[in-house]
C-alpha cells in the first residue's frame, strides 16, 4: 500500500508536493513534445507579459501571486534565453517594462496550442476524479498512473490535428480571440497603430455596425484564424482586413479558406470589389492574396496605416 495513502490526510503536504513534482516533470516532457525549449516555472510570467506588453516585473509579481524575488529570477532567465526584452519606462526611468522578443513571439502561438491541449486534458482528468478532496487526490494520482498526463496531452494534440476546420461568423465573446490573434502577428513584425486598436478593441462599432463582417476559423472549439470585411464608402466595395492565422496550425490552408469565405460573403452582400492593404515583408500573405486573385492597385490610395506599402484589389465577376 502507498505509505502516504496509509498516513492519510496528515500527509497532505507531502502528498501535494509529490503530485506537484510529478506534474512538473511531466510538464517538462510535454514542452519537449511540442519542440519548446521552455521551463514550466516560466509559464505564468511569460504568458502574462504576452497578454500585457509593457508590464513591469513588480506588477507581474502582484498579479500572479509570486514574490518579487522569484519573478525577478524568472525574468532574468527569460532575458537570458532571449524570450523577453526589458526597456526603461519613458515616464519613470527607475521602472523597467517587459515585452516579448521576436523569438518570444515565435514561441507564443505554439505555447498557446500546447496550453489548449493541456487544459482539455486536465479538464478530462479532473472529471475522472471524485468530489472529496482527499479521495480526489488519490483518484487523480491513480488516473495519472493509468495514463500519464503526457500521453493524455499527446492524444489531445492528435485529436486537435485531426479535427476539421470550421468557419463561422463573429459572435458575442469572440473579441478577445479576434484581438489577440491580430496583436500577435502585428507586434511580431510592426507596431500596433491607432487604426488597429480601434478595430480590434471595438469590432462591433467599427466593423460590424457599418455593414461589415468578421469571419472566424475554429479547430476543436478554439479560434485559430480571423478575417474582417470593412464596408468602404464606394458602393459595392469592401476592404479585406485583420486576417490572422495562428502559426500553430500552419499548413492547413486556413488563410485560403478564410479568404474564399470572405469573397463569397462580399458576393452575398452585393459587393463587386474587394480591396486590401499589406506590407512587402509579408511574403506568405502576399502569395495567398495573389492565389485568391488579387492584383496590385494601379493608383495608390491614402492609408491610415504607416506599414501599408502594398495595396491590392479584386474585381468579382
Automatic annotation (TrEMBL):
SMART domains: HTH_MARR. Keywords: DNA-binding, Transcription, Transcription regulation, Transferase. Pfam families: Acetyltransf_1, MarR_2. It comes from the Bacteria. GO terms for molecular function: DNA binding; DNA-binding transcription factor activity; N-acetyltransferase activity. Residues 9-154 form the HTH marR-type domain. InterPro entries: Acyl_CoA_acyltransferase (IPR016181), GNAT_dom (IPR000182), HTH_MarR-typ (IPR000835), NAT_camello-type (IPR050769), Tscrpt_reg_MarR-type_CS (IPR023187), WH-like_DNA-bd_sf (IPR036388), WH_DNA-bd_sf (IPR036390). Residues 176-317 form the N-acetyltransferase domain. PROSITE patterns: GNAT, HTH_MARR_1, HTH_MARR_2. This is GNAT family N-acetyltransferase. It comes from Hymenobacter persicinus.
Amino acid at each position: 500500500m502507498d505509505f502516504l495513502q496509509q498516513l492519510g490526510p496528515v500527509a497532505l503536504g507531502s502528498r501535494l508536493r509529490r503530485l506537484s513534482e510529478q506534474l512538473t516533470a511531466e510538464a517538462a516532457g510535454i514542452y519537449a513534445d511540442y519542440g519548446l525549449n521552455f521551463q514550466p516555472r516560466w509559464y505564468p510570467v511569460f504568458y502574462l507579459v504576452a497578454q500585457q506588453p509593457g508590464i513591469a516585473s513588480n506588477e507581474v509579481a502582484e498579479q500572479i501571486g509570486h514574490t518579487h524575488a522569484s519573478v525577478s529570477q524568472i525574468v532574468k532567465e527569460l532575458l537570458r534565453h532571449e524570450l523577453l526584452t526589458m526597456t526603461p519606462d519613458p515616464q519613470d526611468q527607475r521602472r523597467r517594462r517587459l515585452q516579448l522578443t521576436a523569438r518570444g513571439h515565435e514561441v507564443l502561438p505554439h505555447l498557446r496550442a500546447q496550453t489548449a491541449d493541456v487544459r482539455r486534458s486536465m479538464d478530462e482528468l479532473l472529471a475522472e476524479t471524485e468530489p472529496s478532496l482527499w479521495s480526489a487526490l488519490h483518484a487523480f494520482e491513480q488516473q495519472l498512473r493509468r495514463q500519464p498526463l503526457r500521453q493524455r496531452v499527446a492524444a489531445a494534440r492528435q485529436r486537435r490535428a485531426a479535427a476539421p476546420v470550421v468557419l463561422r461568423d463573429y459572435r458575442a465573446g469572440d473579441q478577445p480571440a479576434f484581438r489577440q490573434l491580430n496583436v500577435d502577428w502585428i507586434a511580431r513584425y510592426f507596431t500596433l497603430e491607432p487604426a488597429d486598436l480601434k478595430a480590434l478593441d471595438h469590432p462591433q462599432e467599427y466593423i460590424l455596425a457599418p455593414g461589415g463582417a468578421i469571419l472566424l476559423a475554429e479547430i476543436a472549439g478554439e479560434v485559430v484564424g480571423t478575417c474582417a470585411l470593412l464596408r468602404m464608402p464606394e458602393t459595392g466595395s469592401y476592404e479585406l482586413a485583420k486576417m490572422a492565422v495562428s502559426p500553430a496550425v500552419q499548413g492547413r490552408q486556413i488563410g485560403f479558406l478564410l479568404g474564399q469565405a470572405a469573397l463569397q460573403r462580399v458576393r452575398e452582400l452585393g459587393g463587386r470589389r474587394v480591396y486590401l492593404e499589406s506590407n512587402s515583408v509579408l511574403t506568405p500573405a502576399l502569395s495567398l492574396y495573389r492565389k485568391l486573385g488579387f492584383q496590385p492597385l494601379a493608383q495608390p490610395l491614402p492609408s491610415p496605416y504607416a506599414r501599408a506599402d502594398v495595396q491590392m484589389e479584386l474585381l468579382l465577376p
